[in-house]
User: Fold these one by one.
Assistant:
Number 1:
Amino acid sequence: MEQICGAVEPLFPCREASIRTLCELIGHCNEAYPPAIYIFGHSGTGKTSLTKAILQQCERQQKVRTVQLNAIECYTTKILLENVLDALAPEEQQPAESLVADNMLEFVEQLRRWHGKSARGFLIAVDNAERLRDMDANVLPVLLRLQQLTGLNICVLLLSQLPFEKYYNKTGLSEIIPVHLAQYNKTETLRILSSDFDQLKRQLQLQLDGDRLAICEQSLTPEFYSNYLNLFLSVFYKACRDVPELRLTARKCFAVYMEPVLDGSVECTDVSRLWRHIAGPLRSALTQIYLRVEKPLGEPDIEDQSVRRLAQSLELPYYGKFLLIAAFLASHNSAKQDKRLFVKHHGKQRKRMQTVNARAKNAEKMSTTLGPKSFSIDRLLAIFYAILDEKVGLTCNLLSQISTLVHLKLLAFVSGEQNIMDGSAKLQCTVGLEFVLYIGKVVGFNVRQYLCDFM
Amino acid sequence: MDPTISVSKGCFVYKNGATRANKKEPSKRKRSGPAATSSLLGKEITTQPFYAAYSDCWKQLHEHIQQLQMTSNARTLEQLVEFVGIEGHCRLDEVLPTAALLTGINQPDHLKQFETLTQRLHLQRVGRVSVLQSRDCATLKAAIESMVYSLMYDLSAMPEMDEEEADEGERDRKRLRRTQCTLKQLHAWYSNNFGGAGKQRALVIVLPDFECFNANVLQDFILILSAQCERLPFVLILGVATAMTTVHSTLPYHVSSKIKLRVFQTQAAPTGLNEVLDKVLLSPKYAFHLSGKAFKFLTHIFLYYDFSIQGFIQGFKYCLMEHYFAGNAFALCTGYSQALGRIKQLSHEDMETIRRLPSFRPYVEQINDCKRIIAVLTDDEYLKKKLPQLLRDCLLHFMLFRCSLEFFTELVGDLPRCPLGKLHRELYVNCLNKPISQQAEYKECWQILSFMSKEAFVAKLSKCISCTEHFLSEQIAPLELGDACAEVMRAELQTLKTLLNDVELATLEQQPHVNSESHLSSDARALTDLTQVASRQELKAQLLQRSKQDKQQSTSEYARALTKILAHIEEQLVLKHLRPLQQAPPLHELYVFTDIATVRRNIIGAPRAALHTALNNPHFYMQCKCCELQDQTQLVGTMPDLSVVYKLHLECGRMINLFDWLQAFRSVLRSADEQENAEVSQEHIDPQIQARFTRAVAELQFLGYIKMSKRKTDHATRLTW
């Protein structure tokens, strides 16, 4: 046990306590394992990698058989069982021999038949264990009581982001030992990130040459790096606590941070000037976090998130644009108002005190902010013809535009997707006001003029 | 049919390998396909000269278009292949290399693009490819299974396998069932076939329609692929139709942090179309031309409806077919020398077709010799002798037209606000449809041109000239008749150059009039006049006159040279060569397709209109004698029941009372044979009529025009307006 702890601990700083707990539970293969362990914590807290390292050590040092699974890959129970069997098959077993386990019974029987007499330990780790809940009803209970059912020294480790309370069902579950991996706090994060320093330095030294290498040797000290990390975390820690993600971004931004120092334009001790250099790139990196968009070298920045650019860059056919506008209008006006909006001689609207009061009260409940309502295809076409100046025939090409817009997720079916033919299908428009305003500007149509909210 | 020993009736399955044989056959047929006749048409058509001309022309055009599209997509494809080549190795971190290809909104069009990508990847032996369409991936299970299946049994990759690979392929010959296609199998297969060092190939997964995928399936799919990345070198390619934001909004953080995204941009569809139009359709190489209206119609479909280049090309092909199928006379629509050969084959009917062409009449009318007119109209041999000259004139006209268009586009294309349009296609349509010099936009252009500064104008015009010269040497010169065309054009350009030289040398200074003395004296007189005006009106008149004088005098040498050169351009290029179709030389109909109505009817489907015509006026389709209508709204009892019911329902409002409807139906039917049924009482309804009515209503409901109302008994709701 001590050996395992010793091998794993240097890899995972700030996780000493959890490692020790785990090793106490599964570190001795000659003692009886607990039937199941539940390891949980947020993403990026090291659940999977920690388990992986411990299992590897157990396998290497104590000849324990281990399996690591990802529950997402096991979209049927059969695949889950076969994967476990595959990994636990005895060494002398011919690989060609069929590993068929159609149900839990066969699975348990097979395990017994193979290993009934040996006294070895077995460890099964299942990642994304919350998916097990959606599988066959017997999967989770059997896994939790696998030790009892097979009579082997077997332990199942379940890894998930949810607390175990979320697993309870009507029939109840047997006891499980929870191990919580808490999120790292700021100092811990700092410590973990600064453990990268040596690797980073080596990498930099390989890339550089001549003058720059000399400067690099001189200025790249652990203090310099931890200064940088402090700056970095002051921007990022509020937005993201996922350590791998932070590590990746920190590395990416460090090159930018080092640049003025390597050029010789800024002293490596001049923190405030360095900060001025890095603040902009850090802020733009903050918007890109988790997205992992890689830009090819020498190409202009095509990533512009503004709605205006998006609306202008979206190429739609002319009538497609009008259909989209019509859909937006149908979604954000009530059908009662259609006559007033789109018919020329709609008569005079009588103003009642009641309606005036109601409108004043509901000023904040504008339909553009309440979200889209559904509309039928007939209404969409009626509005389309009302807002279009020219006469267009109702052709296949036009109707197929509607389905194109649905494919592009600019419109969405609300109901009746199966019976479009009898006219009861309802659609809604999924784009926002700003987007449609820009589209309208492109085709020279004032959308605002036709919205009840702005009358 | 095979006999069975069973006494019961039913379908029986025979296990004799019939299905297998069926499966094999198509692939064989496909291979022998090109050798045999690939046409649906019978021999009697394919041997006609017009068909030969048509297939010749289409083959050339098609190859040209394909080559063009290949080259325009080449850069993106190269980049993608390179990306796959670099990223297609196993790596240790669980990050899935992903390429997002921004394709544009017409998804069916882009499937083809992915096909070429697949071919290229196979050709360069970079990877195995599986194209997963959203319809195959309703669930995660289906997605994984079809991915594994298509990776392992990739048909298009089979032919390029070597011998050594072939026997490895033999090993897997025993096909798996769909349900057996799991990642485990894929893993075994991969290590079997590509396990060795240096044999590694990327496994490329292409999702051509990213937007259509179910978000949950997609997320799980990506998570699985990224988890497998350590062992299998997956590369994901997403075809994104709208913009990158959809990718970001579909994939949550825990998924998007598992992929490494690289964005590739393809050519936008309108630019692609413009390229095809400029380089192929408007190329002087081909004898076939579209009239302005047909051209506009096709581009209109593209720009206003679907953005589909494939659709455009098919529409164009339809026009081509329609043109050539009009008769053997249209076989002349080829290159000059080929046409000369074909003239001999023309029969009497073909000559008659030519004589019936609308532009033939003006030609005959301008001959002033009586005998020759008769000869042209009656003697086939005489006309055949005349034809080569006519065809030559026609072809030359189109070439000159194209050259002048090149010049003209350069001249007016970049004027502020582009009054005439800035692209070849817009100007082509404008010039062919109407006499361009009479349009208001044209006059506006001319005005802008005359206001330009000297440097700008000279630079512009010399650019125009050099552009046209370039066009002449690049495009026109290699063609037959090209020399004749180039000769005419070069002469024009030469005169233009000399004129331009004048403009360049012209000074901007105010040129005093020739007789400066009188000018001065008149000036003095005017001055004196001004002092002695009596009334306001007089002053005004005098001022007006003086300003007029000023204008005349102020014309500098430059301005005069400018007007001169502009007038020359108008006279020699615009009026002479950019003539509208009505003023084109005789027999231009042989080269220009104008029949827009047929194409419109056949290309654009209008289901509602067609149904309405069929029901409202069945005679239109049935061509029967009994239900000929004088008036569209007429109701005749001899029409089909469905049609009668439909017409009656058009008169109703939203809700239709079934009983009233039935009564109306009955009265219509009775009016047809009222003599016999006159005495039948109002209350008693013939069950036969009732049955016919019920059936017609049911059919109408089936067609989707009405729906039985649930709110109001015995009422139907109209669904259309």
Number 2:
Amino acid sequence: MSAEWPLWEVFVRAKRGLSHIHVGSLHAPDATMAVRNARDVYTRRGEGVSIWVVPSDQITASSPDEKDAFFDPAGDKVYRHPTFYDVPVEAKHL
Amino acid sequence: MAPTDQRTDDREAAFYAIVDSDGRIEPRDDMPEAYRRTLIRQIAQHAHSEIIGMQPEGNWISRAPSLRRKAILLAKVQDEAGHGLYLYAAAETLGVSRDQLLDLLHTRKQKYSSIFNYPTLTWADVGAIGWLVDGAAITNQVPLTRCSYGPYARAMVRICKEESFHQRQGFESLLTLTRGSAAQKAMAQDALDRWWYPSLAMFGPPDTGEQVSGGHTEQSMRWGIKRFSNDELRQRFVDMTVPQSEVLGLTIPDPDLRWNDERGHYDFTAPDYDELFRVIKGDGPCNEQRLRHRVEAHEDGAWVREAAGAYAAKQQAKRAEAAA
Amino acid sequence: MTTQRYALALGDDALILAQRLGEWVARAPELEEDVALANIALDLLGQARTLLTYAGELEGAGRDEDALAYWRDDRDFRNVLLVELPNGDFAVTMARQLVFAAYQYELYDRLRGSADETVAAVAGKAVKEVHYHRDHATQWVLRLGDGTDESRRRMVAGLETVWPYVDELFEPFDGADVDPTALREPWTAYVHGVLAEAGLSVPEPTASRRGGRDGLHTEHLGYLLAELQHLHRSHPGATW
């Protein structure tokens, strides 16, 4: 059981111009094989043009306990969103 | 009330607030231990079913009667490996490893769908599995794309999208047989005769007694990891399948099958649940064979997995040395 | 113009190897590898279908891919012996994959320039596929060769198993679009490079086995074909 290959998180860029998006995970002995396995497992229907793999244990995440402190303060900064601003309808392309 | 209890109550309240508003629980959220355990068991059983399910169909890859069918079947069985993989990964977000889950499968402590303990005796069985077994699986799985646990729901979205071709290819394959020679048509009918009731049994035992109130079903529904009862899903499957069988020109082996205008559903004969329980307990035609095959593949591959691990460790040591 | 015999030989190579790799499904060392081996088998099966279809057209006798795959006996198959060898363990399969994918890569790379547009188109697509197959086998030969004592022992044995079947890949072939003898040098450079990196020595030359291109096969092919063909032949004229 000790020989289990580590877990990797897989990110795929669906097409040029888009970000890599998390699509799932897999097991692989090392990074080289992880990229290859990701190609076979997650892009066999032509879902992507580029792949990232990251060892799952190398990801640092915000803690759900800190959720309020992390995310709520942004919730009231409506001025970051374009819909906050009223502009006359005749002003196009804004 | 002790402060710790208060905190537990708050956490539970937060969990139910999410579940009740049809939100998604994510891996690092607080969740009741029983929810976590139930999910692990359900997802693992689902994953085991995918990988054991590779065998009955894989049985026909080498003998597929045309190169086109061979390619389709190979791609389908490959998908099942992929689906098993997605599901194991979803279970792993709950704090178990794939190795642990495989060990539970190999030592018979966890189950897989009993349908795969029936043999595929003719080529038509491959079509029948696609049409009926995948059809039943899809009926079960579509509601799970909205289940309360995020990683499971996302895996199911991916799986359902990929599986849409599985059922269609099965139906098309059977249609080709029923429009073919008398021998081919007989082969298709024989497959339906053998796979119909086991497919109905895939939805599990009937919703009676303990199952409905206070049992697993009620708890799972409360948790949003089951959306419909076994009998609801079974009925939905029958209603969907009967008209398809008419297009195929095949006869469902149930003399009491008929449309009930009042209910707006088909009436049908229930599968033999005693048989279902016997097969679940290990007394199906292929239980031993399927598990032995699975364990052998795992054991035969041990030296390969070990070698790749050893190579990775050596490479890492070399890099560390070069950096030092 | 490509000869029917040549298209058949390349198509048979791909078909028989796809059949062998299909046997790995649900038996691979890890789920990820099940998916990878099935991908390779599917690529080869796709190549086989196109090439056999084309061989049928060149023949002009109305035989399609299935007529050629299912209704010829072993003496009419033109594949090299290497691809019909039993899978053995994972090391034997990877040794065979390395040898064959490296050969197919050099072959298709050159066939892209074939004057025959159909063959050039097949090669253009296939060269990308076999580039990946070659890489897949390379990665595994490196890991098995430099993994554990057991994997190394098995990898050495795997290479010894397939080595007598290497020469046949590079034998002159009458009416070939690309002269097989010209592929040996780049093949050697690649394969020997991989073996060196894996710390494996090139097996000593032993007897070399040949005959596949003339329909003289190993005993293994008869069984492989019996399995591949029996259902189709049990229903003559049926559509599937």
Number 3:
Amino acid sequence: MPPADNQLPPPDIPNAPLKAAGLLLVTLLAIVAFVLFVMQARGVFQPTQRLLLVAESAEGVAVGSTLTFSGFAIGRVVRIELGDDGKAHLHIEVPVADARWLRTSSVFTLERGVVGGASLRAFSGLLEDPPLPDGARRDVLSGDASAGIPQLVASIQQLVINLERLTAEQSTLSSTLENLQKFSGALNGRHGALNALLGSEKNARQVIEALERANALLTKADARLFGRDGLMDKAELSVGELAQLLGEARNALKKADAILGNVNEASSDLDMLRNEVEATLRRVTALTEQLNQKWPFARERELKLP
Amino acid sequence: MAGTSSSARMRSQRWLKRQGRLAGFSALSVVAALSPASYDRITGRGLAGMLCLGAWQMLPGYLLASILISTVLTRIVAVTAASYGLSHLALEAIVRVLVLELIPLAAALFVALRVAPVTMQRLGRPAGDPPPAYRDLIPYTVGSAGAVIVLAVLSGISALAVAYLVVHGISQWALADYARLIGQVFDPTMAAVFSIKLMLFAVVVGIAPTTVALDAGPLDPVVRQMRVMARLLLMLMVIEATLLILPRL
């Protein structure tokens, strides 16, 4: 294409080369500074260690999502892949300076909110435990706020129905509240809680009268029991006499024991006497037989056959 | 009927031929701009003049406007997000919408409105005149393209600073979080898309006004310039839409 001579040159601006060079230099510096800033913000210049988190689902997690500890970002998801075990493998890069917050006992959670992406959180209960090694693999506990919403809605619906039933005019709660109101009214009445408990003022008055009678009776009983020459004093005297009587009875028993000893000895003499009597009787029997044999009117004892 | 269809075919053929010429012209302009041999002292002076026209003279006004719009938009988004309990998403939304999408487009449009009339006035020629050499177009193409990049970069960085100040105030304690957020937004994919978008905007704003040199003919110069501007706007929209859709495919 041949050059044309009829066209106008570009506008002539004073010190244009200088201004243009300055502009380009500033822009170039700004671009370089911004690129370095972004690289630093992405942790390119920081030494990092790897952590593999295994989750049931990677839904809501994106490359670049942060892993937080106590609300502070300490790591970043650099890769997400579907593992051979069918689970989501989240590769996390944690700067070595921040890795001290992760311990072998740390727990990792993946929480999905209703709005926004999922949040990965680390919890380290025991900071004295050994630090998490580089390349460690941990399972993630999942919490899904939106997953429970249908169930929650169903429960709330049931709850509302129950509430309606409870607060209906003819409901048990309503009648209970009415009774409670009556009860509280009775509580504030003349005889207070007694009236409320017994149902009527007449019953309450009877109970109060009965209590008064019982009080009077107790006063009298106290006087009779514990007063001077009361039942208790007499009982004490009786107990003393009883002790004396018991002593006498003990002596009487001792004497009876002695008499029994004498009786025992007498019974042994009786045996001897009895033997002598028996011998005498035997001799008398023999003498009688001899007399019978010698007696002339002795009968003959013979057996005559027909 | 046959006459109508043949005329439509002819029109479409003519349209295709014109688009082919435009594509070839654009490609050769890019090649010329990338060839070190194209640059000499006169070209450099012209380029500096166009850069000053598109960027230096525009910079104060454009920076002021972008800071003002950034402040207002950031405030609106931050307050709206806070009222819905989504404050943690506000800054990311601002950075994505403002810095990645609106500011490059606004910079391209500002530079186009500033340099295109001058370019078209200088390069327009009556019918029968020979078109200008590619080397003569370099100050206009490269100068305008450079102006787009300068304005987009400087106003983008100022918008990032304004967004931080509006949301966190003059406090250094949220800087680490903000840096992490910017690092998260400018991941390798998004950084590449942003760079490509900026480059394409610059190329379109640089080349589109120079295509007036191809349209020598009986047309009224004003109509010719309007066609060039419409072509420029269409190309900007096509690039914006393509780069919005492509990363999500």
Number 4:
Amino acid sequence: MPKLTIDGKSIEVEKGTTLLAAAQQLGVYIPRYCYHPKLSISGNCRMCMVEVEKAPKLLTACSTEAAEGMIVSTTSDKVKAARRDVLEFLLINHPLDCPICDQAGECGLQDYYMDYSLAPSRFRMADKVRREKRRPVGPHLVLDKERCILCTRCVRFCSEVTKTSELEVMERADHSYIGLKEGKALDNGYSLNIADICPVGAFTSRDFRFKSRVWFLKKVPTVCLGCATGCLIEAHHNENIIYRLVPRPNPDTNTWLCDHGRLTYKSVQAGDRLSKGVIKNGLIDLEPALREVASRIDEARTSVAILGSPWLSIEDNAALARLAKDGVKTGSYCFDFNSEQGIKDGILINKDSAPNTSGVKAVGAAHGGIKLAELSRRITAGEIKLVLTEARAAGLIKQALKSAGTRLIVFAANRGEIPPDTYATLPYASYFETPGTFINYQGLRRRTEPPVKAPEGVKPLWAVVNKLAAYSGDSLRLESAEDALEGIELK
Amino acid sequence: MENILLKDNVADLEAYFASGGYRPLKKALSLKPAEIIDEVKKSNLRGRGGAGFPAGLKWSFIPKDAPGPRYLVCNADEGEPGTYKDRELIIKNPHALLEGMAIAGFAIGAGHGYIYIRGEFAAETELLDKAIAAARAKGFIGKNILGSGFDFEIFTHRGAGAYICGEETALLESLEGHKGQPRLKPPFPAVKGLFGCPTVMNNVETLAAIPAIIDKGGEWYASIGIGKSAGTKLFCVSGPVNKPGVYELPLGTPLMELIEKNCGGLKPGKKLKAVIPGGSSTPVLTASEAGAVNLDYESLAAAGSMLGSGAVIVIDDSQCMVKLLQVLARFYHHESCGQCTPCREGCGWIEKILNRFEAGAADEKEIDTLYSVADGMMGRTICPLADAMAMPVISFVKKFRAEFEAHARGETCGKGRGLEDQRTGGSALRSV
């Protein structure tokens, strides 16, 4: 346990701790470009140099291990001069095209220039090294080689995290550039992380490119529902539009975010987002749609089946369970879902593509119900006249429905989700529009926070269910999402 | 005194053996590895590649009880402009190198030695391969050397033309099949070197001195030279002297003795202006500084320069220092591996400024810019390539500022020397 002093403050750290990490523990920030906590140490940018007493040269804080009795300064004149020089070196061949660069506002060069340099340029514009700009690399990224500072975070990400090694530094000296290896395309399922970890505007997201200035974006911490992993994310939005999802690194679940998860927000803003009901392929206003669905349920009553969904929150599943038990009063309801869970690619993507299989189990534990196989049997046997469920969950009983010709009523957020031969569809607020509780594959409780509002009149599913019951003269007394959670035990 | 390294008529194995060769190996194999290392320590032999690190000490850094293989690597990637001594040594005395490697391999417990040789040395590689085959046929390398039970194989590996691969960790990367870029240190190669195993790397000249040290003893070797600069050193002289070439001299010999006596002085009508004493990266000495300095590690350090690789570049008063520096800058700009920011960006910047000086388009303020760019590179990178660019810039600007000022004023220096001349073989920097 070496004891050292950084900027006059003493600290004792674990053996093997770097000066950068030790400083971080003391709340002393050391600027860096190539260092990334989840990637190997490269030590190439030279931005994190600090002065250590008795060392003949400045040392890189990212690669130097703390040793007993070290006296470290991160603010000495030598250190300040080194930072100024490194910034100048990085900027001489930089195109300075901030006005058209997406990174502007969250750029390592801009930020550190303001913090550590503010020196005027001594370099002749005509001498700048010109490199290839705007090269699409893979489906999600654009590469601007002029903006690149060659920190190699992207190269190390591809070799160490995805282990696909698409990128490499080509050439030497100031004609070096990041290039795709021959025959490779940058499409490894996690490529958008590169736009995040690129400290400058070299790699930008093709999806986010030119959509918004980052300083207009508001940030909401929420959860990715792309699979059972339940990564913590941040939704960046402005004026009721989501612009991008980025990971919220945490020790439990994720540092990164997969490309699939990143683009899940698209459905909310897609052209087929439902704001009205659908009866037999025809759009219909919400109120008449609700009334129609309520009367079909009333007709069928005890031969109604209600199926929960691992794509819905615990609140919304619980509301469906209450509808079955206390409203429709049918015995044919099912909250029995099982699926194999676990990370399938060694990084983040789960074997279970539904976000809430574990959460539905908690609802089933509280409210009972029948097994999925039993539900299918009852449908196939013709005992069920109407099935109410969520659009994607309907896929789980597809075969049974087909053979029996049972009437299917679903909740869906997008028209594209609606299974063929659905009788009626009711829209509901997605989890980018309303809060919801989920349990991920690790058993961790996850709560979504809505960055945007649902289309006019579209309510959370639990509220729609409450209203459906009311039309049939039953009261579920669901005033809020929390009411639906009554009786459910959550860890 | 008699040469230790550069000998005539010992290139063939038979001749080498007849002159007493491979006896030191037999002697070494009867010693304990630690005794060999002690002998080398006693000899005060220092690394001849440029850094001058004590060789015996370097060998002793190999962890005693580390499991797995250890490696010996001979650095024959002679790339420092002005340097051509290892090549001469390989041509004239290849078996001294091979014998030195076998002894070093035994001392550090290595079973394999690699000679990483500059790619352009195709003929020398062939020569070494033949020497290796001959030595193997006689049982001096290979399995169970001289019945001792010690196995040691030597392989040659040609580089692909990058100067940076002369830096030891970049060399290891290249030898492993990767792009030649220096590694972060620590860990040092003695702990984690080739293929992640403990590795000793020595220059050709260092290893070739080992047989004599084992033969005659460390104390004998330490008695040659001066103080901590023990033994003889190869000096390769280029520039307008009457007899440029490689000379073996005891360390501590006055620089002017090398130029006047060994090289026969400057060509008629030439006047000494400056000397780069240890390869293109070492700080330049003015004529008067050169006149007062001796060729050993300490004297040259005291004079503000370095012994380096022993490449003495003589510059006469017909040469333009701005042009010479431009040539150097073009070299280092081309050879920077591009890993560290200050070197990657700084080398190119320096060349561009110098191009403007040469074109008469620079203003006087840019002399200070030049100096401060070099200063900003100094000591701030993973390997010393940035220093190798910065040191000549700083010393040229400091000592020959008037020539830069004249260029900035648009006065032609009228010398028109440098790159163009060089292509016809007339420049001082013939190896650039």
